[in-house]
Design brief:
Layout (H helix, E strand, L loop, with lengths): L1 E2 L9 E7 L3 E8 L4 E5 L5 E14 L2 E5 L4 E4 L5 E17 L1 H7 L9 E3 L2 H16 L4 H21 L8 H12 L7 H8 L3 H12 L3 H17 L5 H7 L5 H12 L3 H7 L3
Antiparallel strand pairs: 1-2, 2-3, 3-8, 4-8, 5-6, 5-7, 5-8, 7-9
Helix pairs in contact: 2-3, 5-6, 8-9
Length: 270
């Protein structure tokens, strides 16, 4: 992984996950409370927040972004970013100019928009999974998802944006990021936010596309997946991640990623 800076590249610790003729897929990790100076990108891109939080400043507006948020940035737009107290991990899809010209029938790119909700976050997660599992049909699947996201971005722009989740939603996500092995209850997080638990649960699901429990489970699995790629014993990874034993860990891992931890380790050691 490398530290990218300068116009047209992605700041933070960014790793190119996959590269095709006209698409680049990047995962980037940002340290807590980092401030990224104002910059531009030459190519349009979608920016999906996986964990943590950030605020993007552009065109006189500030837009808070929590997990489940998708930003579309057109080429040449000037913006800066402030990363939240737990850092942020993001999945980015950069589009070559030929991609939109060839598929939108000459329509222009959307303007700078921020999108959220079950449909958007579900599409973004499906896109990331498809890129990671890439096979002979993936290019077609990815094209379809990106076209839907582009259409949603244009629709959002015409609707003058969407309602963004309240700040306490990002704070709750940070709590779950920090304590995914023993997450706080919905009631505890609702009390911290000063809202009713039912309202808290609805707002969280609307922002992330899943319940707080599912969010914590996915966060735990993603952390464990990173550990599986190391030389640590799988039983140690299972217990450190808060699973009852290695068998429990293997079942949950396969349910989440479609393969067992052992299979995943072998595929990344070749």
């Amino acid at each position: 992984m490398t530290d990218h800076s300068g116009d047209g590249e992605f700041h933070g610790r960014a790793e190119i996950v996959r590269q095709t003729r006209d698409l680049q897929f990047v995962e980037a990790q940002y340290a807590p409370r980092t401030r990224l100076a104002r910059h531009t990108h030459e190519l349009p891109y979608f920016f999906f927040v996986l964990s943590g939080s950030l605020t993007e400043f552009s065109q006189g507006s500030a837009r808070p972004c929590v997990p489940g948020t998708v930003i579309f940035n057109p080429p040449g737009i000037s913006h800066r970013d402030e990363i939240g107290g737990r850092g942020a991990r993001c999945f980015i899809v950069q589009l070559a100019r030929e991609w939109t010209l060839g598929r939108l029938g000459g329509a222009r790119d959307p303007e700078w928009v921020t999108m959220s909700g079950d449909l958007i976050s579900g599409l973004a997660l499906q896109l990331r999974r498809e890129v990671q599992a890439w096979d002979v049909t993936s290019a077609l699947v990815v094209e379809g998802i990106l076209l839907v996201l582009t259409a949603e971005a244009l629709r959002t722009e015409r609707g003058r944006g969407v309602r963004m989740p309240p700040p306490w939603v990002a704070r709750a996500a940070e709590q779950l990021d920090a304590n995914f092995t023993s997450p706080p209850t919905i009631r505890e997080m609702a009390i911290d936010a000063g809202v009713h638990p039912a309202y808290f649960a609805r707002s969280f699901r609307s922002a992330f596309g899943c319940t707080p429990g599912t969010y914590a489970r996915l966060r735990r699995l993603n952390w464990a997946r990173q550990q599986v790629r190391s030389s640590r014993a799988l039983v140690d990874v299972a217990l450190s991640a808060g699973f009852a034993d290695q068998a429990h860990f293997s079942r949950e891992f396969k349910r989440g990623f479609g393969i067992t931890p052992s299979e995943y380790r072998r595929s990344h050691s070749q």
